[in-house]
């Protein structure tokens, strides 16, 4: 999440930012919007445009030059009580104490207070660094150095964002952004920011605006139905409930406590519960994941989602972490708290209740059929609107939408495996000698490359737009484990999760290759789902044929995968992989990457790094090419050495591949208009008329998101559109 996203400020910046002695290319200082204190001088503080003795004394103390950079426009800070200072280099020891997160509020609460003043009360869960502590002193010194003033000139400060800068392994440090209040008598004209440091007036993010629509709510027998309690459904329902629209929320899976018990039973060898598993149940698939809250989308709602998570019990540090996460151990309580907020605001939540049918009248929804997931009993409920937020694994919903005449289209998705390494390898690769510093925690990564593409086993025309295929890592789980994520009988699916501490032995991430619509035969919109099922069932049978218990997963070392051999040692219980099946597979060796990239063959000795597979139902050493499509395997084999060049050790021969990962995203999109309502297949393709079905495809399953944050944001956008419709009455 960028600092722009954290501020909730999208494109409102004008003027110039402060930035050393040179003009920062593309840098801007927000000058046109209203600041804390408006255009007036701050009460009890000097006019910012003048000069005081503090200016001269500050420069004498710090040794800063007596002139400011050409791009520094102190007048743009006029009247600002707080300034935002970004690109502050912070030593790692400053991260040994967790700072409180009362930042970016309408009235910021500083982490530290002015000298000789007591700290204000703060509801933050994490204590601020103690006044005069080593961490507080390091932070204050870094801010003062960044601004070119003395430490005592920094009255108070709050952390807005902090990330790790490991671009130079010899100088791993934090990069921080602060909301800063200067001491009495220090004028903004006295600042001489270090090169690369940006200064602007601090803009607190605007709160989420929820209208009061209680007087406009539909009657109790004509409900707004929200199908699904993943991030999209939960946040859509929460907004609608707090607006007074009393949504009925239905979830085919179980409540989170029952769901957790069912998953633990399955992991221990019990039967698969089709209604309570890693895919289905309260919180959606994200509940049993790393709880990663990063997204490539740009929206002020990102901040609103983070604040809602904190109100629901998530660690408040997610408000300032550059790569926030909650962890699978904390997520169940968080989603339960959001559900309780929906109910307390007037909504209703029903678990083990599946959206079984949607009835249209005159092209618009009039009712839905709800089915008990255990008994199959049905109930018809009149509905004024339906939000379809069922997730990417609710494949029956795709069939229902098709059968009821909604427009569906194929969309790109991905397929591959989970790759596991010892977390120590990733830490060393990312942080070098600093890897053991306790302030850093478990390192992560995110990588992508492109390789020559084959479609259905035939190389595409090198001049076509599809001449290459993306290979990338996704949902990296530091210190985490591989998850048994099946939701249908007779199929194996893997995913990954981490706990909040990320203190497990291994790291894992999805290693995926693109699947494009033209990779699939025919024109049936359901072909992507068929491919997913085919691969999942093939993996189940492959593991069984090789001696595994039901729902054991096929696995292979990277060295053997690249050489075309089968890892032979180790049992379904998860023994240490090693060795190869020799002569019978020699003929299947292939050169996977031409040119200068190193080849990893079966004859090479394995790394001394030990990887204990973490998949809970046990792995069986197999040839993954027997369950994954050829074009996927070829892309992964070509991509691994390229990724290793980006992160040394990534293609270590002893790293473990466990498959298949088939549910990273939806292969189908429910087509919707600009008003977020679903289109009908009978609509003219060139029609400018907005659909009026009052059915709202939403989130990842409907094809409009790609993770917890983007799905939650999409849920809020849909809720805002519905609220706007009510408000316009």
Structure characterization notes:
The chain has 729 residues and is of the alpha+beta class. It is built from 14 helices and 24 strands. It has helices at residues 3-7, 53-62, 134-147, 231-242, 256-267, 301-311, 331-344, 395-403, 423-431, 527-545, 558-563, 583-586, 630-646, 708-727; strands spanning 83-90, 154-165, 173-182, 198-201, 223-227, 248-251, 348-351, 353-361, 364-372, 378-388, 408-410, 413-422, 448-452, 454-455, 458-459, 468-477, 481-484, 494-497, 506-515, 553-557, 619-621, 656-661, 668-670, 695-697. The strands form six sheets. Strands 5, 6, 7, 8, 9, 10 and 24 form a seven-stranded mixed sheet that branches. The longest helix is centred in the C-terminal third of the chain and has 20 residues, at 708-727. The protein is globular. The protein starts with a helix and ends with a helix. Mean pLDDT is 82; it is low at 1-70, 101-128 and 569-606.
Radius of gyration (CA) equals 28 Å
What is the residue-averaged pLDDT?
82
Total number of strands: 24
Enumerate the spans where pLDDT stays under 50 for 5 or more consecutive residues.
1-70, 101-128, 569-606
Distance between the termini: 37 Å
